[in-house]
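Re: weekly structure request thread

Next one in the queue (587 aa):
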Amino acid sequence: MNIRRKLMTRFIGMLTVTVILIILLGTMVTIWVLQKVNEVNVVDDFANSGLDQLISTAEIMPDNTIRYDPDLLRQVDKNHGWLQVLDEKGYVIDDYHVPPDVPDHYKPGELIAYWEAETPFPYQLFMMIREKDGQMFTLLYGERNAAKSLLDQIRTNLSYTRGQLLVKPAEQETLRNAGAYIQILDAYGRETASYNKPAMGVPEEYSIQNLVLQMRYPNRTGVAVATWYDEQNETTWMLSVPVDYSAGDLENPYAFILEPALIVLILSIVVLLVLLALWYANRFGSPMLHMLQWLQRLEQGHYEEPTGASGLPRSQHRNGKWKRKFRVYAEVLHSMQALSLTLKQDEEQRKQTDSLREEWIAGITHDLKTPLSSIQGYAHMLETDKYSWTTDEVKEFARIMVDKSMYMDRLVNDLAMTYRLRSGGYQPEVERTDVNTLLRDLVKRTEHNPAYGEGRLFFQSADRPIYGLVHVPSFERIVDNLTANALLHNPPEAKLIVRVQAGVQDGDFTIEFTDNGTGMSSETVWKLFERYYRGTDTGTSDMGSGLGMAVTKGLIEAMNGRIEVHSTPGEGTVIRLIWDERTVKNQ
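Done, posted below.
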């Protein structure tokens, strides 16, 4: 998986987790709100909300009694209510806190008359029928409405004429003892008369909505309200009696639920988003800052990865594995490690190249000055009148001067050849040639060179004819260079074997130069083909320019071949010239 897919996967995963957490928070808050609203509804309107829960949570015991939720029964007590359970014939089979003036059996029409308030009944009656465990429940719930009872009791002894409310002494005492007060409202809800009304806290004008809410939810104001409409005068008689309810003085109890819930939900989401942002910054931003710091160090020439307090790279554990938050950037970190290593190697190679260049300049300067000094010396000797040179001496001087000038010419030509090969300016024309025959002739000619000694050079041909595409003059120079290096820079007793080996494909072959000389160190092998490296000292400069191996490598590659060197100090060196299909593809 590439870094793009990793980042997309992590980002989508983070968003998914965020959405899930927000949904969970919203669900928890919703459940809490519904629970609190249900509690308020039970308190605020027990007849509609509490009765249904009362039936739903009821349990029928083995003795046919019914056990209710204790919390709901406490609410019945707070409301000064009572409960009865009726069978199909109207008989009470179970009850709770039933007053003495409530019957224990109801005829069908009687129960409906009480329920619809067609027949006077001292209690406000509510009825609910539900099926529970295969049985039909008829549950009666009654509450004494103090205001309605009081209004029914005294209304016939009150009169309202010409804007004046007349209350007899007995009714006055009854109202004062109950703490009740009466208001007469006109057709627009404005108060026109009152009796025993408190000086503060009681409105003088009511809208239809306010009046209905006060009658429907006495728990919110702590006042039970009853009304009677006088059709003749088009006035509304309103009697209010203070009652003691736990939820008194709460005009809108739902606000105390919804507002905290909304605040908690918003704060929770904000905190969640902040924590996720911090987590995201640490998980994805910290590795990016680490990589930026790494790049800045690379710009300053420091190629090591920034380390932590323990001295280890910040992106890795002690066992070398990536830390969790760095794994998503593993490909980038691998590339940066490779870049750091390459830059470090290039820096070291540049320093080595500068050193080699200085050594080569010193060596090539010495190699040029040495024969040039000889030429100048012999020229001054010939020019002076102090000596009279014989013809043979003059010829000898001329021969030496020619040899030195030829060496300088060869040195300059080799230097030019290395630059041509390096720039690709030299492209020899190859031709199909019998490699066995060509190598045999070149080795036979080379072994007659007196500088190499006798019996040191051997040739082994392949077991079958090999025809390869080579440039014969370049091939001849390659063989001369490799032979000279092996025989001149090894002890006199060292031997060199040149063998030809056939490849897998037609036209593939390998030429191997194997000697049993002193061998080379790994550093010498690495520098062997550098133009600026001279493996021999300048004292042997007449035997070579110091550029022979660089020229050799360039000529081989120009003919679509490659060269490999394997050497062990004290055991010898093996140099392979390889022409095969893989080499051609890599060109």
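The two ends are 32 Å apart (CA to CA). The CA atoms of residues 57 and 69 lie 6 Å apart.
Next request, please.
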